[in-house]
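Hi all, long-time lurker, first post. I run a small reading group and we've been trying to get comfortable going from sequence to structure in the token notation. Rather than ask abstract questions, I figured I'd post a concrete chain and ask someone more experienced to write out its structure so we can walk through it together at our next meeting. Sequence below, copied exactly:
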Amino acid sequence: MSENTEVKERVAKPKWLRVKLPVGKKYTELRGLVDKYKLNTICTSGSCPNMGECWGEGTATFMILGNTCTRSCGFCGVKTGKPDTVEWDEPEKVARSIKLMSIKHAVVTSVDRDDLKDGGSIIWVETVKAIRRANPTTTLETLIPDFQGIEKNIDRLIAVAPEVISHNLETVRRLTREVRIQAKYDRSLEVLKYLKDNGQKRTKSGIMLGLGETEEEVIETLHDLAKAKVDIVTIGQYLQPSKKHLPVKEFITPEQFEKYKKIGLDLGFRHVESGALVRSSYKAQKHLE
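-- Answer (accepted) --
Happy to help. Here is the structure in token form:
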């Protein structure tokens, strides 16, 4: 077999990765609002495969603190470089977007801002407060960076008590240095455990598969997350954002995803979302049940 044939077979997407185009009245209405008011959602900028389904259920994901990250993870499509200055009116803009879209459950995430002394945690807190002022019935999940493990920055988020705080482990221990580069596997676990030990009611984490991990490593990672007292886990298929990013080594079968789901539930997680098209915020509103 030639090298070109091997590459072609490696990247060929299987049939279970086919995405249905988003449809429905609710999706059409929200898409119109996003375009009209130039609202910044990860759903659209990240071309999420579940956008139609999530929007139909009243869930959307918003990114704060700009669109330039101080880290250069090998899997992520967000650009790396020197970020723009902090926009202190951003919390109000996000809150307004959620109100315009009539979002029932909002997921907020951000780039890493290692350039800021507070890691961006103050803007995070102000965003949560602004959303609650403008949308008192909207529930919240905050998908946070690791804040370099600095406890006072994490404490700020715990103090405003979003319904869910999530932080993604992303991959197994062996691949962390290659996949996440500036992040640390154990530091992420420590952040998750710290959240739970200090009063956060629900915690959540996610991993991607298809980067070369083994089944044993995935199971070990699930055990590590269980030891960190994580409540909710998402497991999805890694897809290469561009040729500059890490290649897909393997497409995981639906049967294997189902196996991991069963293992996770047996370990005691409240919810396990496991499937090829699962992303961090997939079915996020159901994780409050």
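A couple of things your group might point at:
The chain has eleven helices and nine strands.
Confidence is low (pLDDT under 50) at residues 1-9.
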